[in-house]
Each structure stands twice: as C-alpha cells, then as structure tokens.
Amino acid sequence: MFNNKEFDSLLKSNNFKNPPKTGDLVKGKISGIKQGEMYLDIDGIFTGLVRGRELTDESSRFSNLKIGDEVIATVLETENEKGVMELSFRSAGHQQAWQKLNALKDSGEIIEVKVLNANKGGLLIQLDHIQGFLPVSQLSSEHYPRVEGGNRTKILEKLRSYVNKKISVKVLDVDEKEEKLIVSEKLVFDKERQTMLKSIKLGDIVTGKVTAVVDFGIFIEFEIPDAGKIEGLIHISELAWHRIGHPRDLFKVSEEVKAEVINIEDGRVSLSIKRLQEDPWKKAIEKYHLGQKVKGKVLKTDKFGAFVELDENIHGLAHISELSDKQIADPSDAVKIGEIYEFKIVSIEPEDHRLGLSLK
C-alpha cells in the first residue's frame, strides 16, 4: 500500500525506546476494523486507534484498507479514554504530502502538475492533492504569454488556455505553515537550455521562424544542430537600420528570417537582423551633406517634432523648432503624416545614426 523507503527516514527517530509523542508519525499494521474505527498494532508494543473524521484524507488513500495493511498515522494523543493511542490518517496524509514536497524541492526532481485555473499572475496547479501556484515569471518561453501591448485581458485568455493541461515543473518554494507551494516550469529547462547554448557562439548565423511579434521586438525559434530548438529575441533596435514604428510593420508570425547571434547571457539569446546588412549610414556622408535640400516623407510626429524618411534606410528628425518660422504647439500644425516636404539638412552624424532637418 505504501512505499516504505519513502517513509523510513521519517520514522528513524521513533525507535520507541521512548514512547511516541503527540505529532509524531508512527508506522503500524491494521489489527482490527469496526464501524467507524480502525485499530493499529505499533511495533507489537502500542495499540493505536483511528476513528471518525481522522480515518480519511483528501486523497482517499485510506479508504480501502484491510487487516494486515501497513500504514502511517499521526499521534493525536498518547493515551485516550480507552487507554490506547489516538491516531489520525488525515493528519498523517497532510504531513506526508508536505514532507514529500520538501523532498522534491531539495532533490530538484521534475514532476508533472495539472493546471486547475488561471489568474493574471499565473496558473493555479495541483500536486498530490495540494494546490499550488505557477507564476507567469516562472513559465517557460514556450508557455510565456507574449501579448502585444501587454494587454491583461489577452494575457489571461492565453493563461486560461492551459487549464486542465499537465505541465512539467520543479518545486521552487514550500511553506507548510502558510500552506504555500510555488513551482517553476522555467527551472526544468534551465539546465537543458544551458547545455544547448554551449553549441552556439557569438557571430553565428541562424535561420528561424517568428514565434511572436511584440512591441519591443520579435521572438524567433531556431534549431541548434544535434541539440534541439531554442528561442531568441531580436530587439526592435536590431530589426533594421532605419527607425521602426512597430515590429508588425515588417514581420509576421511564422515568417522565416535569418539573424546573427549577438549576445548569450543568463540563458537568453539575443539576435540581430540588421547586422547581416551593411550599415547604410556609412555611405550617408557620401549621399547627404550639410545645407543640402532633400525631399522626405513624414512618417510620424510627436511632441519633439517629425520623423522623416529620406530613403528606405535613412530617416531624420525635424525638431518642432525647425518646422515653422512661427512658434507652434504641435508638429501637426506644420506637417501632416504621409505628406512629402522639402527639407534642409542642418546636422548629420553618421556614427550616431542621426540626421537633423529643417523646414525653415
């Protein structure tokens, strides 16, 4: 019925040279069963009684016991009104469950848990009839809810899609007094991921598929030969040499892209697409110069001024003070998005990828 190895360590201290104390776990054999009562023979020295609500626990593991079965119980009283030891299966089940959780935490063993529910902070899980929590921050990259704009409603929808599924985790934190159990999926993949990352180096060129497009960049999944698949991030600043309004303007999920590995740190891989292309700003000095009049399309405005496209790769900024001879409160008072105007180049810094324009 029970795995003796699992409980022997719990009982080593109870060699019964001294009688068991209240709260101790004891092991015994069922010697008698009556209506609502069960008697235990404890090492041939003590008799124990389990009765009433103490006969069962949440797992129902004690529901089909018979005479001769070996069981574990918790001492409630060393001697009751019948002169025998008062015991509890219910309390023992609770103690064993939490002791097992502590053992799992110490060993780092990978276990499967069932997802019961979700909230905006993560997933509610169940492990051995004890409910716990899997925070969003402890999800693997595969399950992490990457949602454009960080929309909380969409994040919750994504998390709810995992309800009733099983996830492999490690126990991260256990607190029996607070009845707190925290698990981590990310820890499961950390060691495996670190091993995989040893197979790639800075400067490697990889080909992968876009798995997510978010405000700050795109994630791509690529394969490491003889190791497996791994995911990396291409930050918005590494997508192209020119300014990008949003990554979705250039990329979509499932699209295949090539990128260069530019950083490997703390188990994360950073990639770049633009570094596979020659920096157009190196030739900007040949094409553009101070005082030159150029035509450009207004791409976007903000309180500082207007962002202007001179060609596919070179964009400049016309500061609000350079948009009109008159004082204006908003760039939209002088220019319209999508319109083409003739500007004058008032500054150019190819090394810093900056070019200043003026309508004045």
Principal-axis shape equals elongated
Q: What structural category do the secondary elements indicate?
A: alpha+beta
**How many domains is the backbone divided into?**
4
Low-confidence blocks of residues: none
CATH topology of the largest domain: OB fold (Dihydrolipoamide Acetyltransferase, E2P)
Helicity, as a percent range: 10-25%
Please report the total strand number as a whole number.
20
CATH class of the largest domain: Mainly Beta
- Read across the widest sheet, the strand sequence of neighbours is 1-2-3-5-4
Helix count equals 5
CATH architectural label of the largest domain: Beta Barrel
| Span between termini | 89 Å
Would you write up a description of this structure?
The chain is built from 5 helices and 20 strands. It has 360 residues and is of the alpha+beta class. The chain has 4 domains: 4-95, OB fold (Dihydrolipoamide Acetyltransferase, E2P); 108-190, Nucleic acid-binding proteins (OB fold (Dihydrolipoamide Acetyltransferase, E2P)), CATH 2.40.50.140; 198-276, Nucleic acid-binding proteins (OB fold (Dihydrolipoamide Acetyltransferase, E2P)), CATH 2.40.50.140; 281-358, Nucleic acid-binding proteins (OB fold (Dihydrolipoamide Acetyltransferase, E2P), Beta Barrel). The strands form 4 sheets. The chain has a 5-stranded mixed β-barrel with strand order 1-2-3-5-4. The protein has a 5-stranded antiparallel beta sheet with strand order 8-7-6-9-10. A 5-stranded mixed β-barrel has the order 11-12-13-15-14.
